[in-house]
Amino acid sequence: MTSLYHYRFVLLLAAIQTALGFYALSAAPGLPLGGFGAQVLQLATILPCAAYAVIAHRLFHLTYVERTPQRMEVLQAEIRSFLTDGPTILRGGLTLALLLAALAGFTQAKGLVAILGEFSWDETLEQLDRLVFLGHEPWRVFYGLIGWDWVLTVLTGAYAFWLTLLLCTLTIAAFARKNPVARMQFMIAHLLSWLVIGIVMATLMSSAGPVYYADLGLGNVYRPLLETLDAHAETYPYSVRDLQKVLWDLYTLPDGGFSVISAMPSMHVASTMVVTLYAFTASRALGWVLTAFTLVIFIGSFMLAWHYFLDGIVAMAAVGVIWQVSGWFARRTVPDQA
Questions:
Q1: In terms of C-beta density within 10 A (0-12 exposed, 13-18 middle, 19 or more buried), how is residue 119 classed?
Q2: How many CB atoms lie within 10 A of CB 162?
Q3: Cα angle at 66 between 60 and 70, to 5 degrees?
Q4: Is the pTM here over 0.90, yes or no?
Q5: Rounded CA separation 222/122 (Å)
């Protein structure tokens, strides 16, 4: 009972997110049942990666930070201690299942964003982007600075790696035994971000993104960017164009379609920033590495036509507030002796 009480905010947020998923099914019966099974299958391949990441980071710390002479013996003892810690493994498994269920609920509820928000902000966001860059399109400015084809490949690869990083971090946080306050802060911030940024703010500022600007009948402002991405797709192995076309085809299906399309704010940027802030609680070096990755995701968000420049800015600002609020709740949730 005590443990459940300590998890009260996590349970509440997960329940809200899951309930929204069921509401989406009842409000829009045409929406297909989404995501939990697929996430579990993907997690099965990610679990070894998560274990490797934890072991590699711990070995690096023992070798170069603590400079432990018998580092392999210490590492083996820590692994044995974890594998024989039944309560931690049980808690971690239940926590991970809860987080995955909430993520599946979000995937389901995401279909309502386009229905309720009606993509009404795209023109405004395009104009605001130009205003910020003194009449220029942000992607043109950055493409002029770093617009080589291999950069687009790197940005696409980073986008593809994003979900792996997220699921890996959720796994690590679920089973972590150290720093329970930071662990709880991450879980609350993760759930709050998907709920507040990914559903509430996404609905209030509903937009489809530059890639679908012309499909919405708003003009061909982004045609040069899409032509650049199409040319890249013909030469390089990694491309976002096929996925972008599939998502629009799903959205425009005759029976009402299914949408995970949403630009403002960027959940890729928001969720990666939450992971980065959690990484700083474990290691400053790891935090700075993931800061660089967050920057890559942010640049990729508008250079790959998924998002407007301001989508990432708003997402990062919102995460900054959510992280502080989550810390306040975490410190009042986790007992001092934990």
A1: buried
A2: 20
A3: 80
A4: no
A5: 12
